[in-house]
Amino acid sequence: MSHSPDKILITGASGFVGRLLARAEMERGNTVIGIHDPQESPDLPFESKGVDIRDKKTLQDFITSLKPQRVYHLAAISSVRMCQENPGMCFGVNVTGTLNLLDACSKLDEKPRVLFTSSCEVYGNVDPSHQPVNEDTRPAPINVYGLSKLMGEEICQFYMREHGLPIIISRGFNHTGPGQTESFVFPHVARSLARIEKDGQEHVLKMGNLSVIRDVLDARDVVRAYMMAADKAKPGSTYNVTSGRCISIEEGVRMLVEISGLKVKIVQEASRMRTYDIHQLHGDASRIGKDLGWRAEITLEQTMKDLLSYWRAKEGVS
């Protein structure tokens, strides 16, 4: 018996992970409708509407008309730096926007399954002796972004408890891959290396804190985790989406440099250091592995190769 396609709403559909997720859902025959920033005009291979999720009435009218069966809530200000510099905007999108979305979904006769994408930033600085962190580790965010995501989780808990909305929470750890913007560290380095190759620019990479240790995985693995969680996770579940492998920023940068074959000097600049960065974070993926059978599959080396290839192509490097 054939399965009729699900109607799937992806907020933040024009973003890096949103595009990957939309493609993956369409490949399995589902109908994808996106929401993107109304100030953008993205070229997307699926229907998407410009909606400011802070605008409660417009969002509610859209959700009421659409009646999605599944919602992936990816829309957020995801730059830690941008949130730190403009907390009002951060809370408007990440907190009020989440509240508006869940409220609209809760009013539908047939309530959709919702995946809320939280972040490992909710954990804050955890003593290394208490790492890797699992989902029961007490959240204690140290930056505005992490706080906004924790507030989003609390809103999810409220709508599950008081309105019976079936929500799954994912706490994504640092992920990267081809298509991520250069405002994040590894795409920034990959683009810089491609430009050095193309233009013969000064062979210097100017960096911030290189000693920060991160649990890094490929965004394509993250998309698989989101889909598996949306498919079969028990509502109310929270999952770390993490590789369980840690590297310092310096190790990741040197890996990209080695793949490029360039001789590049790496310079750490005090002006680029940030006091609101978590120094070290290592995640435990046991729960999602046990419950859903998910684990990260793409090696970090492959991710970095694909990332550099993407930026070489974008910069016209043969």
UniProtKB/TrEMBL annotation:
Signal peptide: none annotated. Residues 9-306 form the NAD(P)-binding domain. Pfam families: GDP_Man_Dehyd. It comes from the Bacteria. SUPFAM superfamilies: NAD(P)-binding Rossmann-fold domains. This is NAD(P)-binding domain-containing protein. It comes from candidate division TA06 bacterium B3_TA06.
